[in-house]
Amino acid sequence: MTEPLRVLLADDQTLVRTGFRLILGADGIDVVAEATNGTEAVEAVRRTRPDVVLMDVRMPEMDGLEATRRILTGAPGEPRVIILTTFDLDRYVYAALSAGASGFLLKDVTPEHLTVAVRTVRTGDALLAPAITRRLVERFTQRGSDTAALHRDLASLTPRELDVLGLLARGLSNAELATRLHLAEATVKTHVARILAKLGLRDRVQAVIVAYETGLVSAGTGEAAEQT
């Protein structure tokens, strides 16, 4: 029997936590802890080991961005983090994705979307379509800045893997990548998995960010840069 999905809610608004807890509980998802700030969230993750954290961005004492950084330290068994925000394309959301969050939700999310999102990230999938991530990157990336950028050396990638990464960053799905590159979809999935493994990335969201921040894809154009 599959164990129930375990979720931690981190939000300083009681009504938000209560509403989300009721929605998740009605779908058989256990809320194992709640936190009103980032400090409490970090401690609660260590204590309860949830599968997924729903993390508000703006909280007192420690915000959700710093809490996300501390939670996603690379330790075994770390949870997936979904950022909660009231604003689409929030600068903090971009920084949180760079820090390792698996996606974001607006707080007015429907009950159905909320439960699907939590289950999606638990399986290891990213919550954002690459095209949405691209909009975030194009708006907020500043190469050479000290933001939560993901600096990676792409030299370990093969020419084909560079092609896949560049197209992935432009928002193409696996099926679209397969058509564009005249490959089987299973082969594309293998290339994506190898890219993530070689670059030490959690999911496709971070792969898109890396593609822009390393200059493989040019922000504002969505076109892959020339490879020499």
In short:
With 228 residues, this protein is α/β, with parallel strands linked by helices.
Oligomer: single chain
Strand content: 5-15%
Radius of gyration of CA atoms, rounded to a whole number: 18 Å
Give the helix level as a range of percent.
40-55%
Would you tell me the overall average pLDDT? Answer: 83
Order of helices and strands, N to C? EHEHEHEHEHHHHHH
Query: What kind of sheet is the major sheet?
Result: 5 strands, parallel
How many helices? 10
Shape: globular
Q: How are the strands ordered across the major sheet? A: 2-1-3-4-5
According to DSSP, the number of beta strands is 5
- Which residues sit in consecutive blocks of at least 5 with pLDDT less than 50? 143-149, 222-228
N→C terminal distance: 52 Å
Structure class = alpha/beta
